[in-house]
Amino acid sequence: MDVQKLKQLLSREEGEKLDFKACLKLSTESDRKELVKDVTAIANSKGGRGHIIFGVEDKTKRILGIDKSEFHEEQIQQIIYNRTDPPVPVQVDFVAYEGKQLAVLTIFKSRHAPHQVIQNGCFYIRRGSTTDYLRRAELASILQENGLLSYETVIRNDVGMDALDMESIRRFFAGLQIAGDKPNAILMETFGFIGDKGNGEYCPTIGGLLLFGRDMPVHMPHSHIRIVLDQHVEMRTDNIPGLLDWASARIRELMDDAEYPFAAVEEAIANALVHRDYLDASRGIVIKLSAKSIEITNPGAYFGGNRVYGYNKDDFPLRRNPWLYQRLVLVDEKKRFLKYGLGISNIKRAFEGIGKVKFVNLGRSNAFRVVLPRVSGEKAGEHQPDRQENRQ
Fold this sequence. Notes:
Distance between the termini: 55 Å
Number of strands: 16
Structural class: alpha+beta
Largest sheet: 6 strands, mixed
CATH topology of the largest domain: Heat Shock Protein 90
CATH class of the largest domain: Alpha Beta
Number of domains: 3
Order of helices and strands: HEHEHEEEEEEHHHEEHHEEHHEEHHHHEE
Strand content: 15-25%
Helix content: 25-40%
Radius of gyration: 25 Å
Shape: globular
């Protein structure tokens, strides 16, 4: 940690990855618990490494300084390592600033989140500049992002086998040339589409429903896409292939522009369906059409960091739902996910000469947005649907 980096941190406000404290208190067990709580909250929050700067008044950012004799890196590390599971990697640095000493506790980016406070069994996260408990869906999402949980293979005990489109499953296996006219339970279980409740009775998995589900408004109402054009709103709840079919067709109809690169729009929708956070049951994908742009927003921020640099740079970005992607490549009869799983280069190329494609990571709202430009003078404002409807 050097002075320039410290100045950059001090110029920012407190947030998910930055906290200011006037002093370090470790004299009581309560003080030590509070430190561990703050460290795990920063470690569990999205983004890169985080920092706690000691010797700075948190509200005014007035430089107070610290007494170096009160800071023992080994003691701090021991307190954190012995009270967190898995242990959070940290480092202590001292930097002279404005004639005073400041201590910077760096919390390194961890691939082993979520980190738990051993003494009370709780998981914490930062919400803005405050520390809060991790909610159940957030905890499950972090577990999935780090490969500790496969959400798609969770069995839906409350849903019967009639919720699956068996004809689509039959065609899937026929295409692989590994089944007859009627798929058997062992084969469907092997692929993760169904699971045994433990009594010999089978039920669909969440992944099975997302791929082949019927009556999705009943079984998975958050698997939906909303299309918004001015005051006109349409919504469809369906399995993933069905959503991609519907959204692609409706956008073509609503825009009515034969020269627009709709293949790139379909690619962006496919990426949103693959990368969205399905653990967030309160939201779906939203597509907003305007004269200037098409905005596609899906629940689930890019978890490679706060910025989308890595997503932009890499033709093979990290996938939130690898199980789902691997099966969509095989399930989709139109082979769209096979073509569209290669990153974002195709989308950017398609809009050369039209405008700049924007990728926006909305970390605080746990969302990701793709903004596709439209040619000036588009007809979006001219084409008005006859009525407002909500399609299911």
